[in-house]
């Protein structure tokens, strides 16, 4: 039907004439209540955002000569983060003469990664960047 006829029918029913495919020949239109359609669409988007889970990156700071109790405390915190579904950034900051002994930093990172092996995967292995050594870990996917 012609667009003028469609527009007249839409006005009689107090509805809107919405172009579905304007590039087609002839253009495809639909008679509908556009405000109601937009409201329902926004409602669906809001519902989808509500169910969405954002993954945060939490940071655990270790030191080069960390004691076992402190290490276990940091490990427990990291496991809580993994249980919640967050990623963890593990960092060691080298101060002064510690820069000459980066191998101890790699050992500490490896020990931390081995302790978290059953609940997390290494996303990015330990790497020395300036005075800081960084490693990123992500929780293992749940089945």
Tell me what you see in this structure.
With 143 residues, the protein is α+β, with helices and mostly antiparallel strands. The chain folds into two domains: 3-50, Ubiquitin-like (UB roll) (Roll), CATH 3.10.20.80; 57-139, Translation Initiation Factor IF3 (2-Layer Sandwich). It has helices at residues 3-12, 34-51, 68-84, 102-115; strands spanning 16-21, 28-32, 57-62, 87-93, 120-129, 132-139. The strands form two sheets. Strands 3-4-6-5 form a four-stranded mixed sheet, with helices on one face. Strands 1-2 form a two-stranded antiparallel ribbon. It is rod-shaped and about 85 Å long. It starts with a helix and ends with a strand. The mean pLDDT is 89.
| CATH C-level name of the largest domain | Alpha Beta
| CATH-derived topology of the largest domain | Translation Initiation Factor IF3
- Separate helix tally: 4
Distance between the termini: 54 Å
- What is the strand content? 25-35%
Read across the widest sheet, the strand sequence of neighbours is 3-4-6-5
Major beta sheet summary: 4 strands, mixed
So, CATH architecture of the largest domain? 2-Layer Sandwich
Please mark out the parts with pLDDT under 50 across 5 or more consecutive residues, or reply none.
none
How many discrete domains? 2
């Amino acid at each position: 039907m012609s667009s003028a006829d469609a527009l007249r029918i839409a006005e009689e029913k107090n509805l809107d004439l919405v172009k579905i495919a304007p590039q087609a020949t002839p253009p495809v239109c639909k008679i509908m209540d556009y405000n109601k359609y937009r409201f329902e669409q926004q409602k669906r988007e809001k519902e989808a955002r509500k169910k969405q889970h954002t993954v945060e990156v939490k940071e655990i700071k270790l030191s080069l000569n960390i004691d076992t109790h402190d290490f276990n405390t940091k490990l427990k915190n990291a496991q809580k983060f993994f249980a919640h579904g967050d990623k963890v950034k593990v960092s060691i900051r080298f101060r002064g003469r510690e820069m000459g002994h980066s191998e101890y930093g790699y050992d500490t990172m490896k020990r931390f990664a081995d302790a978290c092996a059953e609940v997390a995967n290494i996303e990015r292995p330990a790497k020395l960047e300036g005075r800081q050594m960084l490693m990123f870990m992500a929780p293992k996917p749940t089945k």
